[in-house]
Design a protein that fits this description.
This protein has 444 residues and is α+β, with helices and mostly antiparallel strands. It has 13 helices and 10 strands. It has helices spanning 3-11, 52-65, 70-79, 84-92, 111-139, 141-147, 150-161, 283-319, 331-361, 369-398, 409-415, 417-421, 426-436; strands at residues 167-170, 186-189, 195-205, 212-218, 232-238, 246-250, 261-271, 276-277, 321-322, 325-326. The strands form 3 sheets. Strands 1-4-5-8 form a 4-stranded mixed beta sheet. The chain has a 4-stranded antiparallel beta sheet with strand order 2-3-7-6, with helices on one face. A hairpin with a 5-residue loop joins strand 2 and strand 3 (195-205).
């Protein structure tokens, strides 16, 4: 853990309270809530029920984000240039290892803290570009940290935390989409124990700048597996662009343009035996450990977009005068924004409940993973919908200026489609809740 981050977490005072006790780098009461107050209302999100560590993460990450104003993100969006300076600043503060073990250089905090970090980044004005620049470093490394060998963890994770290496997550395929158990990328084992990978992945974020990929591939034909989820393995591979059998094609996209999204093609791409994470054939179970975490992080990112847009819209509605009165005096403006606020607040509660449940499940065996999945998927759905409502209404509140780049709300609206679509669609979440909670017949 970086010295700066240790000092911030241990010594910096809470809002309106005394410093966190120095004997513990993690002070999270089980199920407890704390109230915090500030003299000036510079935020619109209600802050009770956050732990001391969550508030400190929000404050200290917010200090980093202040170094990168909206002008920085507008320019990165325009040029589609990777925000490497932002990634480096977060790495320098130790934030890329927020939810990774202390023994590997991380902070040893949880997904609850990681979620508020991602919300803070998106809410700062960075939007999905800022969040996605480090997103995979937080969640894609979770299966590696839990199931990897000692050698894998000690040789890879510290370099990701330090920012020396970046990583990406290789799961989605063009012909299977969300039907992950039917993926067709094959990792064929060779006589010397190495593997030859052939297949295609799509929508791989940060592949152009990543050194490592957490790759999901089939190691046994689906027809030979007892069920579709079997025979799938997880790997941590090098993306060696000079080696034969690897090709990447960048996808032009609507939002988050500073972060690359790619098609990745493998054709007999060689990877060593020690790239395998855990036991061969058990990869699908391992990625579920990371996917629930990802849903929490996406929910936080969506909240950040929504709160940023709503705050900007409220400021504009207070200042903009038409017909000799501020437009915020009109209920046609005020009521939609108030409704958006309540939706964000409700989604916030669902999001941090899911993150807390995820963290507590690590020590409490009575918490079923199905329950974590229901909470995480519900939070992601609610936060994404609330963000869309807030961003769309922010644009409409600005009227014609909402269409202008300089007001940022158009960028956040473009960004907010990401959490509605990825990593799982709204419709598949509704299918999941219908089946797992309501016990309705499976429809897909």
């Amino acid at each position: 853990m970086s010295r700066n981050l240790v000092r911030q977490l241990r010594m910096r005072p809470r809002v309106g309270q005394s410093p966190i006790p120095s004997q513990s780098a993690r002070v999270i009461p089980s199920g407890g809530c704390h109230s915090f107050s500030s003299t000036a209302r510079q935020r619109i999100m209600e802050m009770s029920c956050f732990t001391g560590n969550q508030v400190l993460v929000r404050e200290t990450v917010g200090d980093v984000c202040k170094q990168f104003p909206n002008t920085y993100w507008r320019e990165r969006d325009r040029t589609e240039e990777d925000p490497k300076e932002f990634h480096a600043a977060l790495a320098q503060g130790g934030w890329l290892g927020i939810a990774l073990p202390k023994s590997l250089g991380g902070t040893g905090l949880g997904i609850s803290e990681a979620t508020i970090m991602m919300q803070t980044i998106a809410e700062s004005g960075a939007g999905m570009a800022g969040a996605q620049s480090i997103h995979a470093n937080v969640y894609a490394t979770q299966p590696l940290a839990k199931f990897g060998t000692k050698e894998q963890k000690e040789s890879i994770i510290p370099k990701i935390i330090s920012g020396e290496w970046r990583t990406c997550f290789g799961v989605t395929e063009p012909n299977t989409g969300l039907d992950t158990t039917r993926l067709t990328t094959i990792a064929k084992k060779k006589g010397d124990g190495s593997y030859s990978v052939s297949g295609q992945k799509i929508w791989i974020t940060c592949a152009q700048v990543a050194r490592k990929m957490i790759l999901l591939a089939r190691t046994a034909p689906i027809e030979e597996a007892k069920k579709p989820s079997k025979g799938i393995s997880l790997f941590c591979i090098d993306l060696d662009r000079s080696a034969p059998g690897l090709e990447m094609r960048k996808i032009k996209k609507m939002g988050g343009r500073a972060i690359d999204a790619n098609e990745v093609f493998f054709e007999n791409y060689k990877i060593p035996a020690n790239a395998l994470i855990g036991a061969e054939g058990h990869g699908f179970r391992m990625i579920l450990h990371g996917l629930n975490a990802e849903r929490c992080l996406l929910a936080g990112e969506a909240l950040g977009l929504g709160y940023a847009a709503l705050k900007r819209a409220a400021e504009y509605a207070r200042d903009r005068v038409v017909f000799q009165r501020p437009i915020g005096m009109n209920q046609g403006i005020a009521h939609p924004l108030a409704d958006a606020y309540m939706k964000l607040e409700a989604a916030k509660l669902a999001t941090y409940h899911a993150a807390r449940l995820y963290d507590n499940s690590r020590q409490d065996s009575s918490i079923r993973q199905d329950d974590v999945g229901v909470a995480a998927n519900s939070a992601k759905y609610l936060a994404a919908e609330a963000a869309f409502t807030a961003c769309e209404r922010a644009v409409m509140t600005h009227g014609g200026m909402g269409y202008a780049v300089e007001y940022d709300v158009e960028r956040w609206l473009r960004d907010c489609f990401v959490p509605r679509i990825a990593p799982v669609s709204r419709e598949m979440i509704l299918n999941f809740i219908s089946e797992k909670v309501l016990e309705l017949p499976k429809s897909y």
